[in-house]
Amino acid sequence: MRRAGNEEEKATIVIPAGESTLEGLAMEARRSYRTVEDMVHEVIREAIVTGVYQPGDRLPQDSIAESIGVSRIPVRAALRSLEAEGFVVLEPHKGATVRALSRPEIAEIYELRALLETYAVRAVAEKITAHELDEVAALSQAMDDVDDTEAWDEARRAFYGRLYDIAERPHTAELIRRLRADVGRYWKLRRISEDHDHGHGVIVKALRDGRPDDAAAWLRGHFAELSEKLQGMVGPKAPA
After folding, report:
1. Are 41 and 50 in contact (CB under 8 A)?
2. Which of 86, 105, 114, 177 could be bridged to 101 by S-S, CB 3.0 to 4.6 A?
3. In CATH, what number does 103-234 get?
4. What is the 3-state composition of the chain as percent helix, strand, coil, each rounded to the nearest 5?
């Protein structure tokens, strides 16, 4: 949850090539945010999502403040906000660390994504126009036309962002974005996208044919597969 009273519209940080460091993120963020509080929050969040800070890493306030070029006050506020969002763990006398996900937590996240995203795609089916169908079809094709993981990931975000905008369910879209980011940071650490395949045309075809249940079924199966893969990456199953 963003800080109370903040009315600034969220921007997207574009990371310049070779600047995937805390300092590089801060340099780019200063061009996009009007308030220091928002800038610091998004820099630390982006550093976690992109793997500058990895699950379990400590987040020392002094060195973060020095690297970004701010006082400790906005850093402390950002860490509290990121704790509320599930990215950070704050412990008395120990400070902040990047939250690591367990196998059960990963399973829960993908179950929630299945619920939310099948709901969203059904809402899309009720509203989407022929022109919007052509628009999302072009975005889906853009995913098929690239093989580079980073470029594909950008194309995927554009596809889902536009698709769920059509649903006109902003709270649902924000929850989906947060859940995607929570598991997405694990995939990014391995320099792979969570779902780098060419199956998303199924969603477009199902919507064009007036069969939202088919799109929902594909998403459920897709998330079940991803959940199993990511759970295997973070550790073995607990003994029965």
Report:
1. no
2. 105
3. 1.20.120.530
4. 65, 5, 30
